[in-house]
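Bench notes, afternoon.
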Amino acid sequence: MTRKILLISDDKNFKSYLNIVTLTITKLNHQITFTDDVSDIYSDFILIDMDDDFDGRLELIKKFRQTGVQPNKKIISVKSVLDDDIRKKIFEAGCDSIMKKSEFNSAASNILIY
């Protein structure tokens, strides 16, 4: 099975971690590729790091939902620190799931495969 994920993040450590996870997944006969091309309509889902440019990322989520390019893709957002207000803003923008980076990292291989 091959999955293509639109990854929006400026965090080099997070990207490196994801690359390590994908190497492990590849050994289990699952292929994961990442793209950063926001116009790529062939991605399976969108993973957005909200630690970078929070307001800009909120607008990007809204744009995905409002345009015909990515309106039905699952959007998963990660952020190092979450509170109820931040969580509410992200959900209102149109995100399907929001979790702390530490939570995501614990479940990354399962999330990326399924």
